Amino acid sequence: MTASAGSGAADPRCLLLVAPSPRLAAAATEAGFRVVTVADTAGFTDEDLRAHLRNTVLTHQVDRLVACGEASTHPAVLETAEELGVSPNPASASRLLADAAEVRNLLNRSGPAWQALALPDETEKRPPLRDVGYGVETLTVEGMHRVTGIVEFRFGDGSATTLGADLAVHTFPAPITAAEEAEIRALATGLLDLVGYEFGYAFIRVARTEQGLRLMDAVPRQASWPVSRLIELTTGLVAERELIRALSGKPLKAAMPVGCAAALPLSDPPGAPGRITAPTDVREARDGYVLLTALTPAELAARTAAVRGCPA
Q: pTM here?
């Protein structure tokens, strides 16, 4: 379950990637790291996983361990990495960030200013939700948080009451004012400061309510598809390469959107899940979504209207 890859350039450090995507492993190898991977943690008990990670770190003289995907919240992975001194992030920060209940507790303990920003779990205590929410992707290096993108989730049919983004239209960059952007950024980076997040990607969701913006939840990893793809298509930033640049100590590229993009949920054809027939204006189609790109919001709106008028 552990594999080692050859290095590209002459970086002598060894990087252990737990449950990485193929693109992340390739980016690390291209950057010159000696790369060791644990492809999957599912086949281990907690104790076996801890023992396997300890043995791998010592055998390969690992300098850094990066937990990806579901492993980014796995206590056995995070605590072992911290115990061995190879984690770029405190184990407590990743675990806390991924626990919505603990995040609410932290906000409620952090004074009136933060208490007002916690979205209650109980529906009867929750202020009415608008049909718009936001997702904020960040990349943190040595405790400095950089926002790589803010995406808008727009429901428009009352489904926002579910707090889910799966059925929403995703738009990047989010069509918001400079003041709204500053407020959303402050919420996301303030939460990362509160939990003590030091390194890596995070994705924070923010709800718009009738009483203002409220923090919903977060995960200690990059945005999932299709948000990650919208950011990549529009800014040219490849998340995996940026993470490796951060590990290498190199300056990160600026996230400068060129144009705009949207992901629209469309139903799969009957009997053919995952096989949407893409209309002409569609850039990509996958997993129940079609992705559109345009140079201007007006052009994107026109393409969105055209696609919505086409049968899936």
A: 0.90
